[in-house]
Amino acid sequence: MTPGTTVPQSAGSRWDQPRGQRHQHPGSGLPRLFPASGAVPVDLRTHLSRFTALPYLGQPGRLIPVLKAAGLTGRGGAAFPVHRKLAAVADAATRPVVIGNGAEGEPASDKDKSLLWISPHLVLDGLQLAAETVGSAAVGLYVHRNDRLQDQLRAAVAERAEARLDRIPVEIIDAPPRFLAGEESALASRISGEPAMPRFKPPRVFERGVAGRPTLVHNVETLAHLALIARYGPDWFRGAGTADEPGSMLCTLHQADGRRDVVETQLGTPLGSLVQLGPGTQAVLSGGYHGAWLAAEDAGQLTLSNADLRPAGSFVGAGVLAALPADRCGIAETARVTRYLALESAGQCGPCFNGLPRIAAALGEVASPRPDPRAVTDMMRWAGLVEGRGACHHPDGTVRFVRSALQVFGEEIRLHTQGRCVDPARRPFLPLPARTAMDPADWN
Amino acid sequence: MRKELRVDPTACSGHGLCAELVPELVTLDEWGYPIIARGPVPPALDKHVRRAVTDCPVLALKLLPPAGR
C-alpha cells in the first residue's frame, strides 16, 4: 500500500472517549497505533489532544523495567526483548546513537510505511523516549526514499521542535530501496556513510554501530508501542495478546482475492480470522520472504504467535501473511521470489553469492514442465551449503522459504513432472519491486 | 574459555589456505569457501589454527568466544 490509501481498522476501538476523560486508561481495545477511524495522517494538534504528555522524559533508565514488565519485543521481525537492547546500550561507556528503523525492504510489507504516514507522532514520541532513556544525543529516523512520506516526517519533526516537545533533534535518513537495507548492520553502515550492506558480527550494532558508537536500533512500530507503554503501563499493554507474546502488532495481509491491507491485531489471533482460508486458498505464507509456507489446512490450526508458528517452521516476523489462491502455482511463485532474493544478495559472502542464484535457478527448473530430476537434489545440497554461512540471515531466510515450498507444494511438483501445472499461465501473485539492484550505487 | 574458529564471510575470498593448514577443522565447499567445524578449537590444534588466522591472505579468520554465533 502506498501512503494515503486506506488502512482498515479492527472493530471495537475504545480510543474515542468523551472530551475531558482523555487522560484515562484507554482500555485494551484495538487499534492502539492507528486512530479509531479514517486513514488520514494524525497531526500534532490531534495527537496531543488524544494522548497525555510523555512521561519518563529526562529520566535515563527508568523506562527499562517498565518495558521488561510489559514484555514488549521488537516488531521488525526478530522479536528480541526491547528492554535488553535498551539496557545494553544504556550501560555503554560512550554516548549511544538511536535510530528508528522504518526501512521496510520486504516488498510484501506495508505496515511501517502506513504507521509512519498515519501516526508519525507516536513513532517520534517513542524515538525521543528511547533516546532519553539511553542518554543519547544523536537520533535518526531511517526510511526509504519516498518524498511524500519523508516531507511529512520532516514537517512533523519541525513542528515538534517548534512546540518544544523534543529535546533531541531528529534527522531523517534515506534508506536505499534494497531488501536488506533495514538489517541492523546494513543500517549502521549506511548511516556511517558506507553502502547499506550487512557486515560480520561481532561486534553487534549495540556494541559498535553508527560511526563506531553503540547504536540502538528499533523498528518504528516497536517505538510506537514503547510510547504507549510509557503512558499506560505494562498491564494495559498485556491487555492484548498472549501471556508469552503480549500486545498487538501490525500485519500486512494479502488475501487470495488480491486485497492487500494493513491491520492491527493481537498476538495469538487465529490465522484463519486474518486471512481467508476457504477452498480458494491453498497455502499461507507467514513471515514474509524469509518466512515459510504453511498448507492452508495447517494454517487454520495456528495462531499469530511464535509459540504456534515456530514449531511449524515459520514465525511471526514483521507480520506479513499472504494467502495463495488455489489456482496459482506455489512453486512458480516461490521461484520468482527466490530469484529476486538472489538478486538482492549484497554479494559479499561467497556462499550466498554463489548459492542463492543456483538455488533460484534450480527452483526455476522445478517450476518448469518435466524438470530435470536432479534439480531438487542439487537445490537441497546448495541449501545446506549456504545456511548459517552469511554475515546476515539472508541465506538462512531464503533457504527456509524455499524448503517450505518443497514441503507444502509437493503435489504441484508431481504435476510438473507430468508436464502439467495448476496455473500454466503463471500469473504472478506475490508482490515484487519493479527494479532490482544492478550496480553498487544502488546500495547507497 | 576456549575460542572458536570463525570466518568473516564478507572478507573471505576463497583462497583456501585455511583448509590446507587446518584440514581437521576446515573443508572447502564446492565454490572454494571454507566450512569450519563448530565448537571450541581442540588444544592440540591451537598452533595450526593460530597460524591459519595470521596467514589468511585477507585476514578473514577470527578466533572468537563461542557465544558469538
Q: Would you kindly provide a written description of the structure presented here, covering whatever features stand out?
A:
The complex is a heterodimer of chains A (444) and B (69). With 444 residues, chain A is of the alpha/beta class. Chain A has three domains: 44-237, Rossmann fold, CATH 3.40.50.11540; 248-325, Ubiquitin-like (UB roll) (Roll); 330-428, NADH-ubiquinone oxidoreductase 51kDa subunit, iron-sulphur binding domain (de novo design (two linked rop proteins)). Chain A is built from 15 helices and nine strands. A five-stranded mixed β-sheet of chain A has the order 6-5-9-7-8. In chain A, strands 3-2-1-4 form a four-stranded parallel β-sheet, sandwiched between helices. Chain B has a single domain (4-68), classed as Alpha-Beta Plaits, CATH 3.30.70.20. Chain B is built from two helices and four strands. In chain B, the strands form two sheets. Chain B has a two-stranded antiparallel ribbon with strand order 1-4. In chain B, 22% of the residues lie in helices and 20% in strands.
| CATH class category name of the largest domain in chain A | Alpha Beta
General shape of chain A: globular
List the quaternary state of the chains: heterodimer
Please tally the β strands of chain B and state the result.
4
Number of folding domains of chain B?
Answer: 1
Could you name the CATH topology of the largest domain in chain A? Rossmann fold
**CA-atom Rg of chain B in angstroms:** 11 Å
SS summary, helix count of chain B: 2
Tally of separate domains of chain A? 3
Structure described in brief:
Chain A has about 450 residues and is α/β, with parallel strands linked by helices.
Entry keywords:
heterodimer, A: 444 residues, alpha/beta, Rossmann fold, Ubiquitin-like (UB roll), de novo design (two linked rop proteins), five-stranded mixed beta sheet, 9 strands, B: 69 residues, alpha+beta, 2 helices, 4 strands, 22% helix, globular
